[in-house]
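Troubleshooting log. The previous structure file for this entry was overwritten by mistake, so regenerating from the original sequence record. Sequence copied from the archived sheet and checked twice against the printout by T.R.
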Amino acid sequence: MKSTGLYLKVLVILGLVALIWVFWPRKIADQEKTGSALSVEMPAQSQNQNDNQISPEDQEDLKHLDELEKFFVRYHCDDPDNNIAGNYLEYAHHYGVDWRLLPAISVQESSCGKHQLYNNWWGFGSSSGLVHFQNIYYGMDYIMAKFKDSPYAGKSLPEILQAYGPKIEDPDHPGHYIPSPTYYKEVMGLINQIGQ
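Regenerated output below.
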């Protein structure tokens, strides 16, 4: 009897070790492969006291970073890597998209990730079946890239939001759908809360 109990304990321990060995390296490798494709570089503090000037562009980035972080705190947003604001800024710069757009949509669509499905914080593709993302950074990258293309290219923020947001049936033309008259106003309100 004692040998059977010992045998089961050894099997359990070996099973746990095998699970750790199998899954732990993959998890680390996946994080390295699927983390943010863009690296966020905030201005470094100068070691030379005579050379601690920060460029106007870097000052603006720091201001935007601070505004986004305050916005995320206000809405109790999840921050899986303690740099979600920096990632939003980096993707926005990379694609030339307004830096406030996707964070505001994430609050509107999923309470900033709290009610998301499939790492889709932005409700992207919800009218045709929610798009699944491997992680939130793939989602940021994919959607920011989409904002550079039709039907969003060259449009103002309200026009982008009308194209992006939900559609409702046109009361004057049954069977035809129009942009929700409230969605873009709600998201624009969030954008204005973030900053200018």
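The chain has one domain: 57-194. Archived copy saved in two places this time.
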